[in-house]
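[Archive record]
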Amino acid sequence: MIFVIFSLVTGWFFSGWPRIWPLGKLGVNTISIPPEIQEAQADTTTNSPNSNAGSGWTNPTNAYADGTNAATQTSGNGTNTYSGYGFNLTGNTISQVRVRTDAWSVSTSATVSKNPTANTDGTYPWTNPNQGYTSDGSYATAVANRPTFRAAGTAAKGTTSVIPGLPSDMSANDVVILVASTINDGSLSITASGSISTWTAVPGSPVDDIDTTLEEKLYVWWGVYSSGSTGPTIGGSDHIAAQTIAYYNVNTASPIDVSAIGSEPTVDTSYDFATGLTSNYNHELPITVVTTGDDRNSTAQFGSWGNTSLGSVTERMDYCINTNNGGGFGMAEGTLINPGSVGTWTATLANAAVKTYISFVLRSTTPNNKYNQIYGTFGFTNTSETITKVEVGYEAYAGATGQLNLYSSTNGGSSWSSAHNTGNLGTSDPNSYTYIDITSDFSWTWTLLNDSNFKIKAESAWVSGTGITWSIDALVARVTYNSLANEQIRVAVSWDGGSSWSSNYDTNLSGSELTYWTDVTAATAWTSTKLNDSNFRVSVSSVTVGDTSTVNLDWLPVEVTYTAIVYSVTVEPTSVNYGVMPINDTKASGIITATVGDAATKLNIKGADATYTEGGKCGDGVCTWTLSATQGEDQYVHAFTKNTGLASGGILGSNPATQWVALTKISDENILAASVVANGSQDFKLDMRTPSAAGGETELGKSYSTDVTIVASAP
């Protein structure tokens, strides 16, 4: 009799590095996993591309490896697709995929130009100022005007009260001059204003400088017309001569620039008044009024008016009466384009007389023709970039020698920079901007340029000439700054050769080279096939944030974290005791269950020689039965089957599903299960067939043992 005991040995194969750890021999009733394989260890590999396609980047091959050179592009310029990463990870579980970009953007000089979108009136506003926003052939305009004669009213005479008529065809805001005279020691007053609500004496009026009965006392008032046709009522104590005259393009708030009075006690036929006046503004209208004591009804007392300092000297009044030893007055005007001396008035009288007189200068609607309009709401929204230059541009023209003065404000118009003069404008629309550098006006920040603070004032500037019209088609503010190095690098990945792509992954860059990792694990269920060179692609581009700048890409590797698949198996029971068996006998085991781990697994089974060890026995102390496909002398058969109802013994076959199949010592020759599902199991039985005859390796009555090994591997 022979005692035959064997233990089962399980084996684990790991993808890429198969190993078998045998169990102990007799008496081993548990299976333990060696410490180094109790948990599969993750590993990473980082590979670089070796191919690319596309034209978005300059020198795209510089991104193949980490180095001093880089692929470059102007942000937003296009895409290149990189491939050829060489991943060969068959049989591994992919747990993470990350794209690395070693990249940075370069701060560059950039400009932003903004047109105004709102305006407010200055002291003397332009016409259609909103036409000065953008270049569209529509114009904000200003016209160089000067006080201009409208009409004279009907003169009136009387002794105690007169009502001179108002000029006809007047318009609102015409300025009306009222002239009246009376006896030298008399007095006049306006007892009813008529259609002019307020009458104001011209500085120096009344004029009564000569203590002689031949003198005529002179009164001059001004008022602003609104509507109506009723002349003023003038009351006095002796004779009264009165007349009105109207002018337009006159400053209605303060029409008189300067004035002077004088008199001549000499009775003669000449009028000569050196005014000593100097005007303060351009395009003004000097006027003189002179009285005469000539006692007769006449409209031809004055003639040959002159003033060498003025142009276009013209008589506007000549009215004398004979009521109560009467008298009268004459008026003349002349043009004064440039500020300067009013000069000396002269005239010839038809009849000799003493004279009192006044000269005053009417201001134009816009003194010095300085129309001004304030433009704002340019819409600058930048916040952090360093400003290097600020300019204001204009598209404008004017007749003759018109110019513009441009001012900037950074406190909403509370205060202004000094004027920036354009010089003489052209005489037609240039259809382009001319820029003036205003950087030195302030220490510019984006806060100073916001819509609450930043304003531009456009002011017409007159040099010489008449009838000038200024036209502004557009204004613009242009800011030059160093753009922030804050562009974005954009990557996407494909797992099917470029047919499908992940969403875009955008990463903010800085001004120095940094390493950025983009985790694309969630883009797809990654497998080794999706990562091979036929399928895996990385597209890379850049995104402009604010202003375009240069983006540099030094390296574009990809890191893959993977875990080798563990194929494992446990066996229950872990040993079988066949008990006492005679020579040439058979005995089957009970059902044995092999359970696999977390992956679908192929199971192979192999046997081994049976041995009995005792010193001095069998020559070397080890008695060995040889495992074979047939029984013989010191030669035994160990068979297996998956047919758990099969009885011991019988013919050996090749199909373990229905037959007993002899084990060999090579696992690949005996397949227990081609594939067992994850965490599934396979039942089987073993059949021991002792040698048919005892030879020199057989010690009867002794216990022989052997191993059966279950090998787990990839299905």
Observations:
- The two ends are 42 Å apart (CA to CA).
